[in-house]
Design a protein that fits this description.
This protein has 269 residues and is an alpha/beta fold. It is built from 10 helices and 12 strands. Strands 5-6-7-8-9 form a 5-stranded mixed beta sheet. Strands 1-2-12 form a 3-stranded antiparallel beta sheet.
């Protein structure tokens, strides 16, 4: 099948060399997996997934994300953030890095992962109604979806709302509708996660319980466990408070680099 696909370049992304992949797979044993292999512990430096990003540049980069980085994130979330319930919506597509956190953070503690179809996922009203029907307590979603949900609740007077919403992927803006939704549900919490694909989540800002006190543009907050954030100038020196610089990420939250791109990895990491 790999050879068949490789003979039809129009059918596959140019970034994948299927013949090379087939040759590499052929080097592995065809024997059944042994029990010793099933129980062997993962190493913190093992790659847990590869996520392609920045396809707009013409050549997507495959980010090699580490098991230790994901483990650090899940343990931080479990020990640091309040338990808001056991029912989490699998909102993110599998091609988006947030799906790894949704799945791992839920299943690693024996909670329930609720699946949703594409139609309901894209419609703000149907999404909120689905959340109410299935008693979804935790939701990971970008700002634009949160905004659409809040507008639907306001327009159609829908009462359903998750106990906790974790937003990431774009800058969080507190619209009047979002503020109103959390005022109506004072026990619900909003957490602003930040992290590019090359690091997944590296910081969090948990907004206050009183939504009336929220600023329109909440900050990205503080680093999670075993992660450091630096704002540096062009000479890689820390800038004074209030001075604009570039954000640098260090520590366990960082990916290994770009798959098969040692030059670009050396430049960016």
């Amino acid at each position: 099948q790999l050879a068949k696909l490789a003979s039809s370049p129009a059918a596959i992304p140019a970034v994948i060399d299927l013949l090379a992949q087939a040759a590499e797979l052929a080097t592995y044993s065809a024997a059944p997996i042994q029990d010793s292999e099933l129980v062997a512990p993962l190493d913190l430096n093992h790659i847990v997934y590869v996520m392609y990003t920045s396809g707009s540049t013409g050549r997507p980069k495959g980010v090699e994300f580490l098991y230790g980085s994901l483990l650090n994130l899940i343990l931080w979330q479990e020990k640091t953030l309040p338990n808001s319930g056991d029912r989490t919506l699998q909102y993110s597509p599998f091609g988006f890095d947030a799906s790894a956190e949704e799945i791992a953070a839920t299943l690693c503690r024996g909670a329930k992962l609720i699946l949703i179809d594409e139609t309901r996922r894209k419609d703000g009203r149907e999404l909120v109604e689905f959340i109410g029907k299935h008693q979804v307590e935790n939701l990971y979603t970008p700002f634009v979806v949160l905004s659409n949900m809040a507008e639907a609740c306001n327009i159609f007077d829908i009462k359903a709302w998750p106990n906790a919403i974790f937003t990431a992927g774009e800058q969080l803006k507190i619209t009047p509708e979002i503020r109103s939704a959390f005022i109506k549900h004072p026990s619900a919490r909003l957490h602003n996660f930040y992290g590019p694909t090359e690091s997944h989540v590296v910081s969090n800002y948990s907004l206050e319980e009183d939504a009336n006190q929220w600023s329109d543009f909440p900050p990205i907050g503080y680093p999670i466990w075993n992660t450091q954030l630096y704002v540096l100038d062009a000479n890689l020196e820390p800038v004074p408070t209030g001075v604009v610089g570039e954000l640098y990420i260090a520590g366990m939250g960082l990916a290994r680099g770009y798959l098969g791109r040692p030059g670009l990895s050396a430049e960016r990491f």
